[in-house]
Specification:
There is one protein chain. This protein has 452 residues and is mostly beta strands. Helix content is 1%, strand content 40%. It contains 1 helix and 26 strands. The two termini are 71 Å apart. The N terminus is likely disordered.
């Protein structure tokens, strides 16, 4: 809605009733100086926007099929279905204009409504997958394959916007007299806006052409069993069997089948099968039944056995294979949450003899490597505390002493000016501790304020 303002200012905003049928009441706005400015009133009723059209349904995927190529001609239809067209958006309803009165207010005619947007066209379905068993490659020429993807459908048309109302009088004057004093004021009317036409819906995507898998043998493939995952606490220590059929991707499928076949030119060719025995051997000090988390074992697409655990469980293990049996020997386990259970202990000494202790409360430091990075600040001693950085680097290894799960950090021996290590100096310390084990790492930050 457009608003026009008169120059009149009102100390108090008064509510009023509608002046005439078809003219809606408008509220006053306030200008930056604090005076009220009367907004224009709208005559007529705005048009109503049309609803958007529904999206078209996507086409179904083509059927998958398995055949044996023996030299007998076969027509194979794996075509994806076409998408459905999006519905058209609805047209906006017309504005109801009524009759314009010469009121003592500026007027704006009612706007037209916007047309609804057309629905998106449905995507075409992908072509199906063809699996072919054969012994003679020439027999593939007797197979006519149509694995085309379905066509994406057109989007729906947008609905038409409706006309706004026009002013019958663009401007007029009204004279009012009080006690013989007459005042003439000018008023105007602005036509309503034309509603926008709705947008046409987007065309759907065409479906992908189907793909072929070739198996040069007559015997059916055995089922895959490439993955196994279980809780470590109950993971079997007896051998388990994993298997996977292996494939390689080649190009040139179009030239292998009957002329006119529609098939993706890339295809998958069966190259063999991997059968693998796997066994976990638990040599870690932590009991297996007390170890939370899962262990996953899988054969990847190249047939290589992979062992993975959750990110928050650090396992030191070694894989070895002998005579078709792959063993995974677990030599140590540290939960990440235990690796970063560090806290500051008591400090001792003053000045250059000051030593801060760090305690490993989870007692994992016999397995986990530990390194320290220190940010060391001193107070300038002015009225307002202002700490200045004096050291920001890794702690020299000769200033760290480890006694099982206790670390002693000789802060008083830092390689900085002695004036910043004088007894009683206010300091602030930020100690970043990195804990590492079996290729994993995590950090913990400990802070301390006091006097050295």
């Amino acid at each position: 809605m457009r608003l026009t303002f008169s120059a009149a200012s009102f100390p108090v905003l008064l509510a009023s009733t509608l002046l005439t049928t078809g003219v809606s009441f408008s509220t006053a706005l306030f200008n930056p100086c604090g005076s009220a400015v009367q907004a224009a009133r709208t005559f007529g009723t705005h048009g109503i926007d049309g609803d958007n059209g529904a999206h078209g349904q996507s086409g179904e995927r083509g059927n998958d099929r398995t055949v044996e190529a023996t030299g007998t001609p076969i027509n194979i239809n794996l075509e994806g279905r076409d998408g459905e067209q999006g519905e058209s958006g609805e047209h906006a309803t017309r504005a109801r204009c009524g009759h314009q009165n010469r009121s003592s207010h500026d007027l704006t005619a009612a706007d037209g409504g916007d047309g609804g947007d057309g629905g998106q066209g449905g995507n075409g379905g992908d072509g199906g997958t063809l699996t072919v068993y054969y012994t003679d490659p020439a027999a593939l020429k007797t197979l006519y394959v149509n694995a085309a993807g379905g066509d994406g459908a057109a989007g729906g048309r947008g609905g038409r916007g409706s006309d706004g109302c026009d002013c019958e009088d663009d401007d007029w004057q009204i004279t009012t007299c009080t006690d013989g004093n007459c005042t003439t004021k000018d008023f105007d009317c602005e036509d309503g806006d034309q509603g926008h036409d709705g947008r046409r819906g987007r065309k759907g995507e065409d479906g992908q052409t189907g793909r072929v898998r070739l198996i040069q043998q007559s015997e059916p493939l055995a089922a895959d069993n490439p993955d196994m995952e279980s809780a470590i606490a109950t993971f079997s220590t007896a051998p388990i069997s994993l298997s996977r059929n292996l494939w390689e991707t080649r190009s040139g499928a179009q030239s292998l089948f009957a002329i006119g076949s529609v098939i993706d030119d890339d295809y998958d060719r069966y190259t063999g099968r991997v059968d693998q025995q796997f066994q976990m051997i638990w040599d870690a000090a932590r009991p297996q039944v007390n170890t939370a988390g899962n262990l996953a074992v899988s054969l990847d697409e190249q047939g290589v056995l992979q062992v993975t655990s959750q990110d928050d469980l650090w396992i030191d293990g070694e894989l070895s294979t002998e005579q078709g049996l792959t063993t995974y020997r677990v030599e140590g386990v540290v939960p990440k949450s235990e690796a970063v259970q560090l806290s500051l202990g008591r400090n001792s000494g003053r000045g250059e003899q000051f030593v801060m202790s760090v305690i490993d409360t989870a007692s994992t430091s016999d397995l986990v490597e530990t390194s320290f990075h220190l940010r060391y600040y001193t107070d300038e001693g002015e009225r307002r505390s202002r700490f200045i950085s004096r050291y920001d680097a890794a702690m020299p290894s000769d200033l760290i002493t480890q006694d099982y799960n206790r670390f002693s950090v000789a802060l008083g021996q830092l390689p900085i000016s002695a004036q910043y290590l004088r007894p009683g100096t206010p300091i602030k310390m930020e100690l970043t501790i990195t804990r590492s084990y079996a290729g994993h790492s995590a950090t913990q930050v400990l802070t301390w304020n006091g006097q050295i």
